[in-house]
C-alpha cells in the first residue's frame, strides 16, 4: 500500500470519524431538543387541561379538533368529528344553539371576525360562553376558526344573583326614597359643596317653601344661620371630622317656635345627610320633670320623716333635712355621695342603729334590699338610747333604693299613754255618777256604764246583746211616768247619729225621779247618750222659783209704794216751792231784807228734797226692772251747758271754778235728754260736794263717728281703792243716800248711761282728784 493510498484512506477514515462525531453530537442535541419539546408539550397540555377555557379548532372543511374534556362540558359521550354533529336530541347543544353557532363560524371564516355566544348544554346545568375568531396559520389552514369554550355557569349564576340584588336594591331605594319623602321629620342631603340637593316634603312644609325644587334652588335652611349654629358650618365639621354631629337649635315651624334636635351624618364622597326631630314636647316634659323633681325634693325636705335615696351604684343621691338632723350628718359629708355601707357605718358610729352581734352580716342583709323582688321592706329598729325607729326600704326600678325613716319614739310613748288613759277612762266611765251609753251609727248600743244600767233597771243579758235603740226604748218606757216619752229618747239618738245634731231633754220616772239627758254626736260617727239625776236640784229649783216669785211680788209692791210715796211727797213740796217763788217774787208784798235769806234757803232745800225724791224713785225703778228712757236726737253741748248753768250758783257758793269745754266732734246722739242731764247733774254735784273751797271742776265733751265721750274731772282729794270699791254699792249697803253720797249718785248715773248702751268708768287717786268718763254710742 502506498503512502498516498494510506494517506487517502487515513483521510477518509478521519473524515468518517469526524462525520460520525458530528452526527452523534447532532443526534444528542436533537434528542435534548426533543426531550425539551416533549416537556414543553406536557406543560402546555397540563396548562390547557387546567385552563378555565377549552379550545376547539374548526377547519375549513368543518372538521374539529379539541380536548376530550370538551365532550364532558357538552354532555357528549365523545367529541364529534364535524362541527355540525355537536347538536343532539338530548345531549350536546340544542339544534337552535348549534345552528346559530355554525352560522357564527361561517361568518368568522368569511370575514375573519370574532363573535361571542352563550349556549347551554342539554341534560346539563352548565352554561357555556363561546368566543370565536379566525385561527392563525399555525393552527389551521386558511378558513380555520378557533373557538374558546368558557364555563360561565358560576358567572351567570352570580350575574343573575347580582341582577336580582340590583333589582331588590333598586326597589328598596325607591321604597326608602318614598319613606324619606313621606317621613314626618324634616330630612335633607347636602352635596359636595354642602348646598342642599334633596329635601323631603316635611322639610318643605317646615320652611313653607312650596316645593322641593323651590327649596333646593333657593337654598332655604331649616335653622337660622347664626354664626355659632350655621347649618353649613356644622355639616362641614361633620364631613371634615367624619363623625355624626348632634345638636339642638330653635326653629320656627308653622308659625310656632319649636326646639329641634338636628343630626348631621357624613356620607364620605356622597356629601352629608341630615334630619331634624321636634323635641319641643320632650323639652317641655324634661322641664316639667325637673320642676317635678325639684318640687318633690322640696316636699321631701318638709316632711317630718327622714328620706334617703341611693342610686344603682349604691351611692347616696339625695337626703332631706330631717334625715340629716335625725342621724346628725353634716351636709358637706353627704355632698360627697357616700356609699350605702359608709352611711350605715356612720349611723352606727352615731348610735342610730340597733345593736347587733354580726354587723357585717346585718349590713349585707340590708344591702340585699337593692334587689328585693317583694316590693317595700319594713322594719322597726330599737336604738340603744331607747328610741324607736320605723324604717321602710323601697327598691327603685332603676336599681336604686329609697329609705324612709320615721322616729316613732314619741308615738309609742303616746300609745302607751293612750293605753293608760283608756284604762283610766274605762274605770272612770264605769264609776261616773251620770248614766252614760254609746250608740253606733246604726242605732245599736255599743258601750254603757253601771250607772246607766242601774237607772233603767235593765237586765244584764239585754245589754250584752247590744240591742238597737228601738228595742231599748220600748224597755225603757216601762220605767217612765209617761211611757210615750220613750220615743223622745229614740229621736235624740237618731238625730245625733244620722243628722249629727245635738239635742237634750228631761224625763220623769214613775218613782218620782227626774233626769236630764242629752245625745251628742261623736267624731267617729257614734252618739253619746248621757243621763243626770236632777231630782234634788229639781226640788231646790222649785223652792227657789217659789221664793223668787214672792220676791218679785214684794218688789212690785215696794216699787208701787215708792211711787205713791214719791207722788205724795212731791205734792206738798211743789206747793212749798210755789209759795217760796211767790214770796221771792213779791206777790205778798216786799220782803224785808232779813226774810230774803230764809226764802233762798227754802228754795234751796226744796230743790235738794226734790233731788232726793228723784233719786229714791230712780232706785225704786232700778229694783223694779230698770230705768225707762225716751230716745230722741238731742245736742250734747246744749245739755252740758244747761247742767253747768244750773249748778253754777252752788259752785260759786263754795268758790269752786266750774268750767265747760266742748269740741266740735261732740255732736249729738239719740237718747233721753232729761236723763243724760240728770246723770251729769249727779256727777257734777258729787264733784262739787267732794271739793274743798277754791277747787276746780271740768266738764269736757268730745266724740268720734262711733260715739260721744263726756268727762267730769276735779282736782279734789280723790278716793282710795276701798272707797272706789264702795262707790257703786246700793245705798242700803253703805248708809243712807244723800246729795253728797256717791253711792246713789254714781249708781243712778251708771244705770242711766247703761240704759243708753254706754259705759261709765271711774278713775281716782288719793290727792290727785277724780275723773269719771262716760262713753255713749251714736245709735
From TrEMBL:
The chain crosses the membrane at residues 6-25, 128-150. InterPro entries: HATPase_C_sf, HATPase_dom, His_kinase_dom, HisK_dim/P_dom, HisK_dim/P_sf, PAS-like_dom_sf, Sensor_HK_Regulatory, Sig_transdc_His_kin-like_C. Residues 564-779 form the Histidine kinase domain. Its EC number is 2.7.13.3. Pfam families: HATPase_c (PF02518), HisKA (PF00512), PAS_7 (PF12860). Keywords: Kinase, Membrane, Phosphoprotein, Transferase, Transmembrane, Transmembrane helix, Two-component regulatory system. SMART domains: HATPase_c (SM00387), HisKA (SM00388). GO terms for molecular function: phosphorelay sensor kinase activity. This is histidine kinase. It comes from Sphingomonas sanxanigenens DSM 19645 = NX02.
